Amino acid sequence: MTRLDDPRHAIEVRAVSKTFRLPHHQRNTVKEYFLHPLTRTTFEVQQALDDVSFSVERGEFFGIVGANGSGKSTLLKIIARIYRQDAGTVEVQGLLSPFIELGVGFNPELTARDNIRINSALLGLTRRELEERFDSIIAFSELERFIDQKLKNFSSGMQVRLAYSIAIQVDFDILLLDEVLAVGDERFQEKCFATFQEIRAAGKTVVFVSHDLDSVERFCDRTLYVQGGQPQMVGETSKVIDLYRQREINAGPAIAVSI
C-alpha cells in the first residue's frame, strides 16, 4: 500500500510504458540445442504500453476499453504487480483483489474445496474468516454438488463462478476485473453485476476491463480508451464509448484526444 499525492485517488498511473521481447526462434528441447548449437534467437520488441497516465478516484467504477492487443490486460497486470513497468510509476492506496486471468492461483489437480482454501489464503483471508465465509462462497458459486471434484473437471464457466465467489469475499478496497465475467452464462453474469451495487454502496473501487461496451456504460463512472498501447481519451464513459465505437466503425488512424 502506497501513499498517494492526492488522497482522493485509489490508483495513480503516471507515464507508464511496457515492452515485451518476442523471440523469433525458440529451441524447446535438448535435442534442438545439440542439433543447432549455433542458431541464434532474434527478438522483436513489442510496445505494449506507451506513456499511459490516469488516476482512479476512491469509490469510482472505472472502465478500460480497447481492441484486442491494445494493452488493457497488460495495464491491469501492472497495477496488480504481476508485471513490472519499464518506465513510469503506479501507486495504489488500499488492498487489491485481482480477478484478471482465469485459472491463476488454481490447482487443477485439487478439489474445489482445497482451491477455495488456498486462494482465500493467498488473497489474505485468515483461517477463521474463511470458516465464516466458506458457505457463502459455495452458495454464491452455486457449485455445492461439485465442491469435492477436482478442478480439472470444471468447465471455464464453473471456474469463473468459483473465482468470482472467492474474490468478493476478500476485504478488498480495489477490485480489478478483466473480461473474465464474459465466460460465464448470462444469468450468473447478472448475479455478479448485482454485487456491483453492494460494492458501490460500500465505497469500494472497481477497475473494469471489458469488450462489452453496454456493461461498461451501465456501470462505469469514467472510462479510459487505449489503442496500440496509447491513451486516446479518458473521461465521461458515454463520450469515451462514442469515440471508441466511431474509431472501430471507421477504422481511421489513431488521433489522441486531450485528456
Describe what this molecule looks like in 3D.
With about 260 residues, the protein is an alpha/beta fold. The chain has a single domain (about 10-35, about 45-250), classed as Rossmann fold, CATH 3.40.50.300. Helices cover about 35% and strands about 25% of the residues. It has eight helices and nine strands. It has helices at about 30-35, 70-80, 110-120, 125-140, 155-165, 185-200, 215-220, 235-250; strands spanning about 10-25, 45-55, 60-65, 85-90, 95-100, 175-180, 205-210, 220-225, 230-235. It has a six-stranded mixed β-sheet, sandwiched between helices. The protein has a three-stranded antiparallel β-sheet with strand order 2-1-4, covered by helices on one side. Strand 8 and strand 9 (about 230-235) form a beta hairpin. It is globular. The two termini are about 25 Å apart. The model has no long low-confidence stretch (mean pLDDT about 85).
Layout of secondary structure:
Elements: E1 9-23, H1 30-35, E2 43-57, E3 61-65, H2 72-79, E4 87-92, E5 96-99, H3 112-122, H4 127-141, H5 156-167, E6 174-178, H6 186-201, E7 205-209, H7 213-219, E8 222-227, E9 230-236, H8 237-250
Parallel strand pairs: 3-7, 3-8, 5-6, 6-7
Antiparallel strand pairs: 1-2, 1-4, 8-9
Helix pairs in contact: 3-4, 3-5, 4-5
